[in-house]
Amino acid sequence: MKNNNSLFIRIATLLIIVIGFVSLYFQIAATGKSVDGAMADTLRERGSMNVVLMVVGIILIGLFVALWQIERKVSRLEKEINKP
Amino acid sequence: MKQNWWKVLCVALLLFTFTAGILVPLGPGIFITSNTVLPTASAPFTISVRGYNTRFADNKASTSAWLTNWDHKKAIPICPTDVKVIDNTHLELSFPPVSKLDSSFFGLTVYNNADGRLYLESAIYTSDTAQSGIVHSCSPVVKNEKQDHFAFPFRTVLYESMRNLFFHVPMWFTMIALLSWALWNNFRYLRTFNLKYDQIANEAVNAGLIFGVLGLVTGSLWARATWGAWWVDDVKLNGTAITMLAYLAYAVLRNALEDEQKRARVSAIYSIFAYVMMIVLIGILPRLQGTDSLHPGNGGNPAFSNYDLDNTLRPIFYSAVLGWILLGFWIYSLRLRIHRLNEKLLAS
């Protein structure tokens, strides 16, 4: 039961992060569009801030994967220690 | 806490990197949104200028603009008859009939006291071959060369993606730092045959690979935005791909060998060769003249020069490099400690 719970929390955290990034991306895209039409769009595309955000996002995801690996190793250790 | 000071430093440096790297604005710059080819040299024309992070309207009094052509390598400014400031980012310039002197290209400069001198090279082109003298030559007044606030330099093609300097580039610095630590421990193992050093080298390579993969993926994304393709035929890219494969093979090789001492010996020697190959492939080959590379500092391009590392970027870039390297060693040390605990548990 406890294990299930922590898995749920992990998946929920991941979901929140992914949704956060996606919504942030669309929000920025939307503000870019509402400023002054087509010209702002091309400038925003040229401004390419979205590339920076995606790069930061990828690095964070990579670090989360590394964290996940460490977590798995620790739980394996815990299992080993708790074995009678 | 005393031994963990470097982790605190790591967090502080990365916090600084993320806040400054994302929040510091880009310096002002200009584009032309109207026709950039002069139809005939003998008619008046208007240019619509779009500014990026500019403040034309706030500094209306000092906002001026002029075209530049060259007469025997001497820049001759050509002033407009009217400068219409629409808002902070829009200008409309009306020019009298002009014709070229030495060059068919005219540079455009927009100036005000807050934004400094904004120059757009080859802004206007004329197909007219006649070389009549230019009228309306003038002498513009420039008080401040640069903008009045701290900002990253404005570069065409790169624009805001310049900030990736603090995220993509330090990935490679971290990978090389971890792999160098692995190399040092390979040597230590081969001198002492103590398995302790083999473990250190192995975990350093594993942590280094994470950063290598992140560097490749983020680089690919950046290349799509600025070079137009996910993967371009660049010596540096192909070199890193080969290096990553060599180190992945190292991981496979380790799993294939059963005997501990034998595994440690073979992988230490293999790892030393892989490191040498990495230095040659990503450190030396791309820097040779005649190789075709888009990376700064390669194929004869200068690196760490004024062209590609502005002084405003330096303090943040250096703290980013140190911060990411410390994070890499943090991950490596966690993995190593778990590995050691595992060994101890298996032995008991």
Provide keyphrases for this structure.
heterodimer, A: 84 residues, mainly alpha, 2 helices, B: 348 residues, alpha+beta
Would you write up a description of this structure?
- The complex is a heterodimer of chains A (84) and B (348).
- Chain A is an all-alpha fold.
- Helices cover 95% and strands 0% of the residues of chain A.
- Chain A contains 2 helices and no strands.
- Chain A has helices spanning 2-47, 49-82.
- Residues 32-40 of chain A have low confidence and may be disordered.
- In chain B, helix 2 (169-192) runs antiparallel to helix 3 (195-226).
- Chain B has 348 residues and is of the alpha+beta class.
- The radius of gyration of chain B is 28 Å and the shape is elongated.
- Chain B is 45% helix and 17% strand.
Helices and strands of chain B, in order, run as HEEEEEEEEEHHHHH
Terminal Cα separation of chain B, in Å? 30 Å
Structural category of chain A is mainly alpha
How many helices of chain B? The count is 6
* DSSP strand count of chain A: 0
Please outline the major beta sheet of chain A.
none
* Poorly predicted runs of 5 or more residues of chain A: 32-40
Shape of chain A: elongated
What is the topology, as strand order, of the major beta sheet of chain B?
Answer: 2-9-8-4-5
Low-confidence stretches of chain B: none
**Secondary structure: helix percent of chain B:** 40-55%
The N- to C-terminal Cα distance of chain A equals 20 Å
- Assembly annotation: heterodimer
Quick take:
The complex is a heterodimer of chains A (84) and B (348). With 84 residues, chain A is mostly helical. Chain A is built from 2 helices and no strands.
